[in-house]
Amino acid sequence: MKKFIVITRTFFDADVKDKVFEISKNSMPIFKKQPGLISIRMHVENEQLQTLTYFEWESKEAHEACMQSPDFADWGAAWEGLVASGKIKWELNTYEILDEFIA
Q1: Which terminus of the chain, N or C, has fewer Cβ atoms within 10 Å?
Q2: Which residues touch 60 (CB under 8 Å, ≥6 apart)?
Q3: Where are the domains of the chain?
């Protein structure tokens, strides 16, 4: 199986931290029911003003279908509002696994 990895990084101002965590927490059940999702790991850095989320998908197509899902309409609108406010910066990078080592 050729897995597809998506890593997002979110940088945010302290005054919107609670909102970012709330939106992230509320989006997890939506992600978890998407076909082709293998796992999600969300990390927060020590200062708690940055998150890194690691999504593992069965395929690139599964990830793309998820991004088009109407299940995210409310979540997406809230997220876009924060981005538009300038209080957060967000980046997304995608990867295919070349080799995998499991201890």
Answers
A1: C
A2: 4, 94, 96
A3: 4-96
pTM of the model: 0.86
Q: Is 22 left (phi over 0), alpha (psi -120 to 50) or beta?
A: alpha
pLDDT at residue number 99: 75
Q: Which of 75, 16, 9 has its CA nearest to residue 42?
A: 9
Tokens, residue 103? 């201890």
If one compares 76 and 16, the residue with the highest pLDDT of the two is: 16
- Its sign, for the CA torsion 74, 56, 33, 1, is positive
For residue 1, the model assigns a pLDDT of 62
Structural fold of domain 4-96: Alpha-Beta Plaits (3.30.70)
